[in-house]
Design a protein that fits this description.
about 400 residues; mainly beta; Methylamine Dehydrogenase, Chain H; five-stranded antiparallel β-sheet; globular
């Protein structure tokens, strides 16, 4: 089902993290892949028990992949998988758990880590492996507070958010020279978290920052409702709501990804807490869609995660049994579904298990992860499939 509408717009100046040394790869290099083929990725040193394993998050234009893996001690560690299939593994000094979410074309990486006091700090890793850590100036220093970085563009600009001393989130952009500018979306709440939902401004992760510097994400207002936003390169804001989005506590519109053309995508939750996909164009037109087979119960439905420069959207849907499956929506609106096959370890079919695509590059290659029948994580790469 697809509908089109023009939403209300305003202009003015989740930790959403999924959670979740160079070594030889145990997966085939991308250059040997064929369209539609899925390759399993397991970082050497990943644990094999429930809650352990490899989470591939982002893929750049050259086919390099970043993410993090959880080892046998349940510590999270960063990784970069090069296009030739080799892995680099890394952690900032002082990290007890490393999250990696951003990667640009040149191989610069960004993410954040938790220290021994459970405070978050941002970092950048250069293509040659040098790591610089940083904190937003007003970031809180208590447990669960601090600086969270999500994306880096080809100019070296980094976007993210930080939690202040009372737990309110504020967006920031970090220039290549290290200067950090904070911002708040108009309408963002300033209250303390309630029932696991924080108020404030939340720029998102891989593919949330364009080459020109536009940033997308969501903000949570004083009533704990979600609203999508784009912060334009000049600092002005566009906010938007998907038609049919719920208007009570914990519902609304969440923007996860923006492509270079300025199109944004993500899910919105209706009044029954069912997720539906949307595509928001720069001129304000909104397209909504659902994947056939998506469940209609609370927490089920369609979850777009990323969109590339041609305009293809990928993500996952949750069926009536609470199992996740991947999907790809092409520029004509045609939707193809997929699962990591049994030829790999195989995506599980229990509640919460399944296939979770995260990002797609301009060539159509998709990176993500899946949960197997034992609730262990495995990364995957799905080679580009030409549109027909």
């Amino acid at each position: 089902m697809t509908t089109h509408t023009r939403p209300r717009q305003t202009c003015a100046a989740w930790i959403a993290a999924f959670g979740m040394a160079l070594v030889a790869a145990n997966a085939t290099a991308q250059s040997n892949t064929v369209p539609g083929r899925i390759i399993e990725i397991n970082v050497p040193g990943s644990g094999a028990r429930a809650g352990q394993g490899t989470q591939a998050i982002g893929v750049n234009e050259r086919g390099a992949i970043v993410g993090f893996y959880i080892d046998a001690t349940y510590a999270g560690r960063g990784f970069l998988r090069n296009p030739d299939g080799r892995f680099a593994k890394f952690d900032p000094v002082g990290s007890t758990y490393t999250y990696v979410y951003g990667l640009n074309r040149e191989g610069a990486v960004t993410g954040f880590y938790s220290d021994a006091n459970s405070v978050f700090h941002g970092f950048q890793r250069t293509p040659d492996g040098e790591i610089t850590t940083f904190d937003a100036p007003d970031a809180g220093t208590g447990a669960g507070q601090g600086t969270i970085t999500g994306d880096i563009n080809d100019s070296g600009v980094i976007a993210g958010y930080y939690y202040d001393a009372i737990g309110v989130a504020h967006g920031f952009v970090r220039a290549p020279d290290g200067k950090i500018t904070s911002f708040d979306a108009p309408g963002a709440g300033t209250g303390v978290p309630s029932q696991g939902i924080g108020q404030g401004t939340f720029p998102q992760f891989f593919s949330s920052l364009t080459p020109a510097g536009a940033i997308t994400g969501f903000y949570v207002d004083a009533n704990y409702l979600y609203h999508g936003f784009v912060r334009n390169p000049n600092g002005s804001f566009t906010s938007f709501e998907a038609p049919g989005a719920g208007t009570t506590f914990g519902l609304g519109t969440i923007s996860y990804s923006i492509n270079p053309e300025g199109e944004t995508t993500g899910p919105y939750y209706d009044a029954n807490s069912v997720a539906h996909g949307f595509l928001h164009a720069p001129n304000g037109w909104m397209t909504t869609f659902d994947v056939s087979g998506a469940g209609t119960g609370a927490g089920q439905g369609t979850y777009p995660m990323g969109n590339n420069s041609p305009g293809a959207i990928q993500g996952y849907y949750v069926d009536a049994s609470d199992v996740a499956h991947g999907f790809l929506r092409d520029t004509n609106g045609k939707i193809t579904t997929f699962n990591v096959p049994a030829s790999a370890t195989g995506a599980g079919t229990g509640a919460g298990q399944g296939t979770y695509p995260m990002t797609n590059n301009s060539e159509g290659t998709i990176a993500g992860f899946y949960l197997d029948a034992h609730n262990a994580y495995h990364g995957f790469l799905r080679a580009a499939t030409p549109e027909r």
